[in-house]
Automatic annotation (TrEMBL):
One of its GO terms (molecular function) is phenylacetyl-CoA 1,2-epoxidase activity. The lineage of its organism: Bacteria, Bacillati, Actinomycetota, Actinomycetes, Micrococcales. Residues 1-28 are annotated as: Disordered. It comes from the Bacteria. This is Phenylacetate-CoA oxygenase. InterPro entries: Aromatic_CoA_ox/epox (IPR052703), Ferritin-like (IPR012347), Ferritin-like_SF (IPR009078), PaaA (IPR011881), PaaA_PaaC (IPR007814). GO terms for biological process: phenylacetate catabolic process. It comes from Pseudarthrobacter enclensis.
Amino acid sequence: MAAQNLQSVPAEPTGQAPASAATTEADAAGQAHFDRVIAEDSRIEPKDWMPAAYRKTLLRQISQHAHSEIIGMQPEANWITRAPSLKRKSILMAKVQDEAGHGLYLYSAAETLGQTRDKMMDDLIAGKARYSSIFNYPALSWADMGAIGWLVDGAAICNQVPLCRASYGPYGRAMVRICKEESFHQRQGFEILLELSNGTEAQKQMAQDAVNRWYAPALMMFGPPDDDSPNSKQSMAWNIKRFSNDELRSRFVGMMVEQVKVLGLTLPDDQVRYNEDTKKWEHGPLDWHEFQEVLAGRGPCNAQRLERRREAHDDGAWVREAAAAYAAKQLNKQKEYAA
Ligand SMILES: [Fe+2]
Ligand SMILES: [Fe+2]
């Protein structure tokens, strides 16, 4: 899946209460180490001192990214039973399973910042946490599996490859593996569209319709325009984010322009052009009001996605209980052996 470039929380002062001289000294040394690591473009690890705002920003970003991965399973899981062949069914199942794995890596990375997975999950199912707005759109036809893979996973790759160099070690390392799998996801989506495009006229129309519906939401995955993204600057200063939203969006459009020709389809945007002066790809206007509405929970499928997540969480209660009971039993055994 795909993590959209979710707004990170604003930078804020550490806001610590007056500390003892020893604490102040430790903080000063920690800050100096942190500044040096960032200046060297090296990595901060979980046990390192870090500014409270850096921790909070990362926790917000990584948990939102994790939520996006697991909510992102839903639009495609919806089509597993209706895949047109055994081959397509097994590929789609593998892809959806990959997304669950991405969620797992990212929840684990977020936990290293001091948040429990239970709390993150509670926030998600209570509707308090955000996830990528793209997954609140419905997957209406089999061709949507192609468009999601090609456009949504494609945008995710554009967004996430630079995150492999994020300054927080566990996040960057998780992204390396995720990006490899996202490449497979995009490829399988492209291949679905290619086959449909070379099929009957009705199949080609279905592919074009899916591209038409997913194009603009995919472009909005990069987040609001730079002028309207005040927190990006701080994230870039911390080497979490490497390129601005508009820069990444422009690169993505450039990639899609070439690939859509191979597909024999078109992008639903007659304003795509390469600007020789800025050396950037430009696109038509996007509906940012719609983006904000979907992000605020008023998209076509928000309620359904959260309801399904709640049901899945409840259905999985026995698995969590069994795993906890097994872990307790193993711990007791170890204690008995040690005694
Ligand atoms: Fe994916
Ligand atoms: Fe993913």
